[in-house]
Amino acid sequence: MVDEEAAPATLGELRNLRRWLVVAGVWAVAASAIAIIALLAADDDDSSRRPPGAVTGSQLSGVQRDLDERIDALEKQVRGLPQSDDVAKLENRLKSAEDRASGARGDVKAVRTDLDDLQQRVDDVEQRQRDNSSGGDTSTTP
Questions:
Q1: Residue 137 has pLDDT above 70, yes or no
Q2: Which has the closest alpha carbon to 69: 25, 103, 113, 111?
């Protein structure tokens, strides 16, 4: 039974993951922008009524920069994921290695057969030699 958790990701799964990571990043940027705009608009309306310790526009700008940096880092990670041509090259190399291993297996079988045949011939020659030395027939033909 094959463990599905241990199976490697397929090309389609990698594309799907990459697509969803980009979608999540875009949604995060959009949500952050909307939240910041709403906070800035509320800040302009409530600037005179702001309680002590409230968030200022400069603090929001810092948060926005931090979020932008995080989103950029996520986008770089997504771009760093294997591309479809990289996966195809890897699949080709794996197929080539499998073919070579299969060919080597056939070569080993052939060598083993030849070795068994040679061993049988040596055993036959030794047997004839023993028969000849024990007083058997003196002919040397097989």
A1: no
A2: 25
Beta carbons of 95 and 46 less than 8 angstroms apart:
no
What is the mean predicted confidence (pLDDT) over 85-106? 85
Task: Write down the pTM of the prediction.
Answer: 0.32
Q: What is the pLDDT of residues 62-78, one digit of tens each?
A: 888 888 898 888 888 88
Contacts 24+ apart (CB under 8 A), 130-137: none
Say if residue 85's pLDDT is above 90. no
Query: Whose CA is closest to 29, among 71, 60, 59?
Result: 71
Q: Where are the domains of the chain?
A: 9-48+56-81, 84-136+138-142
Query: CA 140 to CA 109: how far, in whole Å?
Result: 32
CA angle, residues 87, 74, 27, in degrees to nearest 5? 110
Q: Dig out the tokens for 4 from the structure.
A: 């599905």
Q: Give the per-residue pLDDT at 125.
A: 92
Which pLDDT belongs to residue 86? 75
> How far apart are alpha carbons 11 and 88 in whole angstroms?
8
Q: In sequence order, which residues have a C-beta less than 8 Å from that of residue 9 and are 6 or more positions away?
A: 17
